[in-house]
Design a protein that fits this description.
With 153 residues, this protein is mainly α. It folds into 2 domains: 75 residues, no CATH class; 51 residues, no CATH class. Helix 1 packs antiparallel against helix 4 and helix 3 runs antiparallel to helix 4.
């Protein structure tokens, strides 16, 4: 493995400030950078929904500042590793991501179907946003079920 060079925390933060995700790309965290770009694009596209506007705007601002700060902190962490003579881990895109959870699979399928129906105007996004607490309830029920199941074992 070739040793990685020091990263400029200022440049990482500046790049992330100019366009979200580029700070992570600069830090050689390609998967994270691409994910940040997709999240940013998704939040921007959701801005057109007037029903969710205040909530989405707060999410967008929080995500924007988070990824700038995270890029700076990651650059500093990489520098600490390089100075100590360690090789910072290269982020590799996994071939498969083992999850094994039926619950999360079903939840993602349901969300995908709802968003697809909303894209074709069969249901409205405002209807989806009115029922978003059901997602929190479902996750809570799953966590409670898993906790009780572990206690029984």
């Amino acid at each position: 493995m070739t040793p990685r060079s020091l990263k400029s925390p200022f440049l990482a933060g500046f790049l992330a400030f100019i366009f979200p995700g580029t700070g992570a790309l600069y830090n050689r965290q390609y998967l994270k950078g691409i994910l940040y770009i997709i999240i940013f694009a998704g939040l921007i596209s959701l801005q057109t929904e007037s029903q969710a506007q205040p909530f989405i705007a707060i999410l967008l601002a929080g995500f924007y500042f988070f990824q700038v700060i995270e890029s700076v902190q990651t650059a500093k962490a990489i520098n600490r590793l390089v100075i100590n003579g360690e090789i910072p881990p290269e982020e590799k895109i996994p071939q498969t991501i083992p999850t094994g959870s039926i619950f999360w699979g079903i939840l993602l399928i349901i969300l995908g179907i709802l968003f697809l129906l909303a894209n074709f105007d069969l249901i409205s996004y405002s209807l989806i946003f009115d029922f978003w607490p059901l997602l929190v309830i479902a996750i809570g029920v799953k966590m409670l079920y898993e906790s009780l199941r572990k206690k029984e074992e």
